[in-house]
Design a protein that fits this description.
CATH topology of the largest domain: D-Maltodextrin-Binding Protein, domain 2
CATH class of the largest domain: Alpha Beta
Strand order of the largest sheet: 2-1-3-11-6
Distance between the termini: 32 Å
Radius of gyration: 22 Å
Number of strands: 12
Number of helices: 17
Helix content: 40-55%
Oligomer: single chain
Largest sheet: 5 strands, mixed
CATH architecture of the largest domain: 3-Layer(aba) Sandwich
Shape: globular
Order of helices and strands: EHEHEHEEEEHHHHHHEHEEEHHHHHEHH
Length: 414
């Protein structure tokens, strides 16, 4: 690595890339930093491999990276990222963010990253469709109850079927079913948690054999095979492609990350701008609402020779005005002040709903071996969606696989 270069690994998403490059230019102008930015944007599997599997954060390939909160236990276990307290002069620095956006990167009472972009998963829907009197009347006549953002999974399926009009390129909903170790894993968690199903045991072991999980996967299989409710491209969609389909006006509703709702609201000439509503994810009557919480953090590579510059840039990029700029540019600012900012809520009327969503925020299990477990869950979801194998058999095989994984590895809760 050249000493006059600063290497930054970024999650591939145009609003992220644009924001970070503009902030770096501003930072260099204000600080006098002469380092040349070498930024590379990558999709999830490629980014994880470069940062952690190939040790890019530890061996000095990357000075700074956007790291998913899902990977932070692994990153700390590999000693790939460094704690940032020693690089910060303000002892109250972390008070700007809610506790739900600090948990995943805090280990042994030290912070190993700073929130960049968040937005829990939620139900995102077309208000104009749900509030249309003609639809309200027709839905009531067909299903016998009022059309509203669905509160449980049966009504979610009913609503998806009602709005399906594939001949006009409007679909009831879609799944981000592309197997990338991320989206389907969250769908697994959603189907379990919204039925009060738990697969993590208090001792850190995994138990997939649970009635609520089996029920959830049965519903997921039913939905994933229902061409009368689902977008035709669901098998090829990740969360970004799912969000883009909604932005193009192709979906009546979706379960996706909050950030895609703001992106759709702000995009120039967006056909759904001003028509977007936010609601909790459907859940069964015996379960509590849940908002799966995965977010992106700035993390400084443990092998970086520019750690002080990296943290100085982070402090600049996360200032209140810059956090607002990220939000109005299509990302999701993480500071509590941004959630209530007048300029933000004027352009994104549902933005202050973030506070209530975070009341139900829940992260993935905090295990160093989680990526391997996520791979097993991904395989569960592939088999559920693409085969007719009994779900009980799929879960039994997965249970054997995870027990083999954990046999010689003491589960490490951090």
């Amino acid at each position: 690595m050249r000493a006059d270069q600063f290497h930054f690994a970024i999650r591939k998403f145009e609003p992220f890339e644009t924001f970070l490059k503009l902030r770096w230019e501003e930072y260099c102008q204000l600080s006098g930093c002469k380092l040349q930015l070498i930024a590379e944007a990558m999709d999830l599997p490629e980014l994880h491999a470069s940062l952690l599997t190939e040790n890019g954060l530890k061996n000095g390939k990357w000075d700074l990276a956007l790291v998913s909160s899902d990977w932070m236990s692994e990153a700390c276990d590999r000693e790939a990222v460094r704690p940032v307290e020693s690089l910060i002069s303000d002892k109250d620095f972390f008070n700007a963010w809610p506790s739900s956006l600090l948990r995943s990167q805090k280990h042994q009472n030290k912070h190993y990253g700073v929130p960049f972009h968040d937005g829990p998963e939620c139900l995102i829907y077309r208000k104009d469709l749900f509030e249309d009197p003609a639809h309200c009347t027709a839905f009531l006549a067909r299903y016998g109850y009022i059309l509203e953002p669905p509160k449980n999974w049966q009504s979610f399926h009913d609503v998806a079927r009602y709005f399906q009009q594939a001949d006009t390129n409007l679909y009831g909903t879609a799944l981000a079913a592309f197997p990338d170790g991320h989206n389907a894993v969250y769908d697994f968690c959603i189907q379990a948690w919204t039925r009060s199903g738990e697969f993590m045991q208090p001792d850190g072991n995994v138990n997939f054999q649970c009635t609520a999980i089996e029920d959830g996967l049965s519903f997921y299989r039913k939905l994933s095979h229902d061409s009368s409710a689902l977008h035709r491209d669901s098998r090829e969609m990740d969360s970004v492609k799912l969000g883009m389909a909604f932005t193009r006006g192709e979906l009546a509703m979706m379960i996706n990350w909050f950030g895609f709702a703001t992106y759709a609201a702000l995009l120039k000439n967006s056909p759904v701008a001003g028509k977007i509503g936010i609601a909790p994810i459907p859940h069964q009557p015996n379960a509590q609402p849940v908002a799966p919480n995965s977010y992106w953090v700035y993390a400084v590579g443990s092998g970086s020779t520019h750690a002080a510059v990296a943290m100085d840039f982070i402090q600049f990029a996360t200032q209140p005005l810059n956090d607002v700029a990220l939000t109005l540019g299509g990302g999701i600012g993480c500071r509590k002040s941004t959630w209530s900012d007048d300029s933000v809520n004027e352009q994104i009327p549902f933005f202050n709903d973030l506070e209530s969503l975070h009341d139900h925020a829940r992260e993935l299990p905090d295990l160093a071996q989680w990526p391997a477990i996520a791979g097993i869950i991904d395989e569960i979801m592939i088999k559920v969606a693409s085969t007719t194998q009994p779900i009980a058999e799929i879960l039994l095989a997965a249970q054997s696989a995870v027990e083999e994984l954990q046999k010689n590895t003491q589960p490490k809760t951090v």
